[in-house]
Design goal:
Elements lengths: L1 H12 L3 H22 L3 H16 L1 H9 L1 H12 L14 H11 L1 E3 L2 E3 L1 H7 L3 H12 L3 H13 L1 H24 L5 H7 L15 H7 L3 H6 L12 H15 L4 H19 L5 H24 L2 H13 L1
Antiparallel strand pairs: 1-2
Helix pairs in contact: 2-3, 3-4, 4-17, 5-10, 8-12, 8-15, 9-10, 10-14, 10-16, 10-17, 14-15, 14-16
């Protein structure tokens, strides 16, 4: 019995030569294309190393790696946006968006009407600085952690959540190219003049780094793909997807935590001058649209549904 079990385990953990060749070819093609489009970055090697390590480690980590390729596709597409700035294709909206925000949500301070971003820039508080930084740090680990949880609990919901996440991002990326938009901090620093290749900026999150004496957000925003991609706010879209699937998987009290993080991110986006309220609202709309569209496609049980079910079987 031990001999048979050992042989079966060896068969389970072995990777077919064809799969190895495909992984090697795709990895090399990705690194080469990345070098051509945006130049070499250590992040690219780390992504390849992470995937291949998980794929070859064990059967369960192999399925985990295959499942998380959905998020890898998102990351690669986001990274490649650097090669094709959206302001190449459409005019960047700066003053018109600023004026619309002030007209709809302006706040009176003394005798002056300010945008909410300008108001909070003048009335910031250390407690809000810290809380905003904490909430803004959640936009990556919370969706990723939730996805990992779903992978081990329910592969179907994991796949649905992951594909919804990807779909919402694709909708957001399309919006970025149709409607390039400057964030509030850009107006605060540069006015209404369009300056291509403007580097990313921490804006109000700089106060979080300063309070703790670290360079956390400085490093994060130095890697941004394009500062003229403020509308819609995908930071605001992600937590809503988490809340939706948290409700579907009946996580009960955990959903209260997710909802708190969601509202906290919405507030922090405006408080730190990274987004207008309009950006946040359109991020919510983008999330709702992606959720509805994916649920509709699954309910129809057509070709998309069947393709998704085949993917689920591959990682079960």
């Amino acid at each position: 019995m031990r001999t048979t079990s050992t042989v079966e385990n060896r068969k389970d953990t072995s990777v077919p030569l064809k799969a190895t060749l495909w992984i090697t070819a795709i990895s090399l093609a990705y690194l080469l294309l990345s070098y051509v489009l945006i130049g070499f970055k250590t992040d690219q090697l780390l992504l390849v190393a992470l995937f291949t390590s998980l794929y070859y480690l064990s059967p369960i980590t192999r399925k985990f790696a295959v499942g998380f390729t959905i998020f890898m596709v998102f990351w690669v597409l986001y990274d490649y946006m650097k090669a094709f700035p959206n302001y190449w294709f459409n005019q960047v909206h700066i003053q018109d968006l600023y004026e619309a925000e002030k007209a709809l949500f302006g706040m009176v301070s003394g005798s002056v009407r300010l945008t909410p971003n300008e108001y909070w820039a003048q009335h910031h508080h250390t407690v809000l600085d810290v809380l905003s930084g904490v909430f803004y740090l959640c936009w990556v680990p919370v969706p990723m952690g939730f996805a990992a949880f779903l992978f081990f609990r329910d592969r179907t919901q994991f796949t649905y959540f992951s594909l919804t996440f990807l779909l919402v991002n694709l909708l957001g990326f399309v919006a970025y190219y149709l409607y390039p938009a400057a964030p509030p901090w850009y107006v605060q620093l540069h006015g209404f003049e369009f300056i291509p290749k403007t580097p990313g900026n921490m804006a109000g999150l700089a106060r979080f780094d300063a309070y703790f004496g670290i360079d956390l957000f400085r490093g994060m925003y130095a890697k941004g793909s394009n500062v003229f991609a403020a509308m819609p706010s995908l930071h605001s879209a992600y937590p809503l997807i988490v809340v939706f699937y948290g409700i579907k998987t009946r996580l009960k009290s955990v959903n209260f935590i997710f909802a708190t993080i969601m509202v906290g991110i919405w507030f922090a986006a405006v408080y730190t001058s990274h987004h207008y309220i309009l950006d946040v609202l359109f991020g919510i709309l983008c999330s709702c649209t992606g959720i509805f569209l994916f649920q509709y496609l699954m309910a129809r049980k057509g070709p998309t549904y069947r393709a998704v079910q085949r993917f689920i079987k591959a990682i079960e």
